[in-house]
Design goal:
single chain, alpha+beta, 15-stranded mixed sheet, 19 strands, about 20% helix, about 30% strand, binds zinc ion
Length: about 325
Amino acid sequence: MLDQNLRPSPIVPTIDLDGSGAQHGFLRLPFSRDDSAWGSVMVPIAVISNGRGPTALLTGGNHGDEYEGPLALYDLARTLDPQDVSGTVIILPALNYPAFKAGTRTSPIDKGNMNRSFPGRPDGTVTEKIADYVQRHLLPRADIVLDFHSGGRTLDFVPFCAAHVLPDKVQEARAFAAVEAFAAPWSVKMLEIDAVGMFDTAAEDMGKTFVTTELGGGGTARARTVRIARRGVMNLLRHAGIVSGAVEQSPTAWLDMPSDDCFSFAEDDGMIETMIDLGDRVEQGMVVARIHGVGRTGTAPQEIRAKMDGLLAARHFPGLVKAGDCAAVVAVPTG
Ligand SMILES: [Zn+2]
């Protein structure tokens, strides 16, 4: 299973990944630095296992400033009774732990964006070493993978669960069935701006059933979106047959992201004014945001127009925007 050309991972788990019951520990990664010569990065991990059955790998904090996933997963790790499990649940509530501790998207140690670091390297940066461990030691164990995201400090989304359109239609159908079971208010057939190096791609290339979320954003979590996260992860475990009981259904509306025209980018620095709110309908050509120059008075704002009919699925969150920032995302309701 392991690539013989790669050296072993320096990461040592402090718990037995094959053990049963509820175990709470760390992935310990040696990290020598000024304030700790023989120190380590300690990434929290819980393994809750009971008998035979499928394995779910659940991750939050892939980006360190997104909170619905960590809130749901620290809670699940604390409360999930092994007696209620058939199989194994591996939980990493704060995957890029250095980033999570700093409250930043990327790691303060190496500026590593975990979701652009796969498949990682055993002899790379701290972020790459964590990715490599997930790639070679955790992903192969998993049947189903849920990686929580939200918009972080710079984006805000309508709350959705998503999977990708895949070349293997059987694998794709499994993923969309899992998205349906998560039962977020919106479900998305997702297009990526840049899929290279993503955890998603690593899991999908291994044939895993992979689902992800975008559950709000702005560098915080809301009561409603945390409820969606908590219910969604339990639904996914029921759907996978790891926890017994029926999926708690609620209506979900499917959205498509058919092309790059979904995304609109700022072409000026300035102050952004959203012209419609998340979830509102848009028509092609409609001004969805304006960017006001602030260096002087008397200049006209840049108008950002929707390139298709749909609804506003995401928007830039902070009041100030820079040229190149993603300003708005339009998705298309289907069925
Ligand atoms: Zn994210």
